[in-house]
Amino acid sequence: MESRKLSSLVSPETLKWKVLIVGRPGSGKSTWLSGVPDVGIAACETGHGSGLLSAAHTANATADMAEPKTFTDFRSICLNNFAAWQTKKAIGLDSLSAMTKGFIKDHVLSTFPSRNQKEAMRRQAGVMTGFDYGDVADVTRTLLQQLLGQDRHIIVTCLEKTEKDDNGVVTAVGPDLPGQLSLGAPALFDSVLYLKARKVLRDPRDAKSAYFERYFITGSDGVHVAKDRNSANGRSFLAQEEVFNLETGAGTFSALFAKILAGHANASKAPATTAAS
Description:
This protein has a single domain, classed as Rossmann fold (3-Layer(aba) Sandwich). Helix content is 29%, strand content 23%. It has helices spanning 29-34, 71-78, 96-101, 103-111, 117-124, 132-148, 181-188, 253-269; strands spanning 18-23, 39-43, 64-66, 90-94, 153-158, 160-164, 170-175, 191-201, 210-217, 227-228, 231-232, 235-236, 241-244. Strand 6 (160-164) and strand 7 form a beta hairpin. The chain is globular.
């Protein structure tokens, strides 16, 4: 253990971004992830390429990918024991929702004992019961902590889950994860960004000029569980909404991280303020 200055955390040479990207299927999470420089992507969705087919022709289509099939495969990535990626500058998981419902769930059902015969029958069919949700959450949390402890950029994607009150009004939108992990996971990351899409008009007078614009929500709006620790005096260096556009380069990993680095640099140059005596 060593003592060091807080200022060392935000130098361009040492700052690593640990970010959770949340969004609906098709919102562009995999496409955004594929644009991270020198990234290795652990792909766990279904379909050809385990969900990365849509990213095959993006600007950074040379990004490396692997398809972990077992809990042991996934654990090797989290512990930096996957030899092919040990020198990568960034690691991406796509998506954590699929991993918890796949081999992490299978690991818990096959390793943790059943509590009664009825539960055993359901678990043999691959159905989680009772404490299984908490066990999956605990196992996943442990692996995430190990992954986030690596000295490189860590990007994790996740599907969203909507909570509604008794009247059907949406009260919260969070990551689709088991048990209390839906609330616990955001606390592990420096940034939680929501990737969404909306219809906008290029010409306000022409309805035919409508197109879908992708954008990130970077901070809490009272519904989305979003945050960003890259801030000064309580204000994030990212705008509350950041447009993501591959054609212009806006909102890509490189663009957002450059904005974060610039924010830290400017904050470091600003004169210190003290409370009036």
